[in-house]
Amino acid sequence: MKKINQRKVHIISLGCPKNLIDSEVMGGLLNKSGHQVVDHSDSADTVIVNTCAFINPAKEEALEEILTLAEEKKRNNPQLQIVVAGCLAQRYGKELFAQIPEVDLFIGTGQVGNIVNHIDQLNQEKFKRSAVITKPDFLMNSQHPRLLPSAAASAYLKISDGCSNACSYCVIPSIRGPVRSRKPDDILQEAEILARRGIKEIIITAQDTTAYGRDLKGRPQLSSLLNDMAKIESVKWIRLLYAHPARVTTDLLSVIAAHEKICSYIDLPIQHIDDDVLKMMNRKVTGAEIRKVIAQAREIIRGVALRTSLIVGFPGETGKRFKKLADFVNEIKFDHLGVFTYSKEESTIAANLKSQVSEKEKERRREIIMNEQAAISGAINKTLIGAIQEVLIEEKSDRSGFAYIGRCSRQAPEIDGVTYIKKSKARIGEILKCRITAADDYDLFGEIIK
Fold this sequence. Notes:
The chain is of the alpha/beta class.
């Protein structure tokens, strides 16, 4: 049944995979209610910008997107409705409400499930601009529809929301609330739904996946959840992101090792290796414990690919402490690594710490580690030349000599490199055996084995 006030809605999703899932849920709810989610803003009556506000670059990206839409509305399309959702709205919605009058509605992270009601109210004659910033307590479940790309072979699955870690530099607990885990049965039900939709790869995500279940009765374990998920026949790959090194257990590593369909891949954000810096960050883990977890992962999981993220320029990171981090990167040789420069966020403990590092020095330190990592990653990739890898075919390639872009199981979407496949016949969404024929610092190149 068509809604009387059916709207064409375009959703712009910024930031992390957790935010993307919220956007997919909003899209699913709007489609189900009779509104139409469209691919482009120029064909939309309403544009929702689902924002990130984790660090300064994310805030700047969100504001640029909002101001571009505001200018378009002011100059060319006064009837355009603009909704700002997500983390930026949760954090700054009330201030931005006064500063950007072109935005019709600001809604915080707790309002994802109410998106249909908000869009319907936008179309009422008596509607007045507002900022609806409530307690950040939304938690999706398997009954929430998700609007996924029609050809998607990979999807994220959010097992919890919020965070209770209280890292001294991080605003996520104030934006997303404390950790709230979904019940195992509900997660497995969503995994089954995704599998029936043709999803081949499920990527487990949360603010901290290893904190899963600690807030639930009976304290269900992440390892047990993965073990049960691996029994879903049509799911081919399961990938784990955002595993806090303080809570990676040998039991979890053993479950990953025991199942062929659980990728030999762990995203292990360590942030730093110096004990004093880790303590100031309130990471609740020591450098020695981080080393132990890495050693255990490599011992228990054959051929494991390790990804990490680091923060450079944290207050009190002296030259000596930074050198310790750089030496550690060279010693451990992570398969994949990302570096953030410390972002001074108001209302965090770290913002008031002494010995703040200049922006210029932060960038210099980031560049040093990324240059080192490029060489490390390139050397690791070259060892794969001649190896047979399963590759998930994701899209067509416009690179000369290569028909498709895919990923092997050691590559997560967006954050790692890709695998280019030479001209051949394949279908998007297939997982095929390929021989790696070449490699550069971040990407692999291969051919399908007939």
